[in-house]
């Protein structure tokens, strides 16, 4: 509560800087950060789609920019953010139906989210490179 | 009989609650298969020509799934960012403006993506 008429000097509940960083809090924070990054990144998706709708020359420019080293680096992290946020969402859905709250299960879910997001992102990019040019 | 609940209902910081929670989950579940489609389509079109990309994106099944993804994802990201704004922006006017900007952004993104996909599909 940030009520302006709260009495001064009252104890506040401890905030982030009090705690030793733990996987649980890091994963919670990263879920929000990846969500925010995906939000901003939708601009890249829209530019790509609109350039395809605009015509061959606009699309060729977009493909060249997105296919550059910097472009691919951004898209690689965008892929990871998307996969990580999706797997984090699955974790939340598991909690929503009342499962996975035991300490061991929680830790397993966090590790599976992290390992899964890194593994799947690499897999997507390997398949992406293998398919390069497949659609003509 | 009037219980105390009736006096506080709708007075939380967001003025609403369960609909927001439910819509976030509903779109999250929808996003899971649609994100797989989206990643598959984009990965397939890496480095492709304009003709190849528009042929794929103009396929009715691909276009419909991509449009569903745009709808679900923009609703999901709008209410997700709404929570972030409500958590961190405490000034009332600033919060109001940020929430408006958030809605505008989501609508612009959703409409632009949908328009592009439809234009590619209808080939005008």
Structural notes for this entry:
Chain A is mostly helical. Chain A is built from four helices and no strands. Chain A starts with 22 loop residues before the first helix and ends in a 6-residue tail after the last helix. Chain B has five helices and no strands. The model of chain B has no long low-confidence stretch (mean pLDDT 92). At the A-B interface, helix 1, helix 2, helix 3 and helix 4 of A face helix 2, helix 3, helix 4 and helix 5 of B.
> What is the straight-line distance between the termini of chain A?
57 Å
What is the helix content of chain A?
over 70%
Write the H/E string of chain A, N to C: HHHH
| CATH class group of chain B | Mainly Alpha
Structural class of chain B: mainly alpha
Q: How much helical structure, as a percent, in the residues of chain B?
A: over 70%
In the residues of chain B, how many domains can be counted?
A: 1
Largest sheet entry of chain B: none
Measured between the Cα atoms of the first and last residue of chain B, the distance is 62 Å
Tell me how many strands of chain A there are. Answer: 0
Write down the Rg of chain B: 19 Å
Low-pLDDT sequence parts of chain A: none
| Subunit arrangement of the protein | heterodimer
Number of domains of chain A: 1
Rough shape of chain B?
A: elongated
Name of the CATH class of chain A: Mainly Alpha
Keywords for this entry:
heterodimer, A: 136 residues, mainly alpha, 3 helical TM bundles of succinate and fumarate reductases, 4 helices, B: 124 residues, 5 helices, Succinate dehydrogenase cytochrome b556 subunit (chain A), membrane (chain A), transmembrane helix (chain A), metal ion binding (chain A)
Write the layout of secondary structure elements.
The complex is a heterodimer of chains A (136) and B (124).
Chain A: H1 23-54, H2 56-67, H3 69-96, H4 103-130
Chain B: H1 5-8, H2 18-44, H3 50-57, H4 60-88, H5 92-122
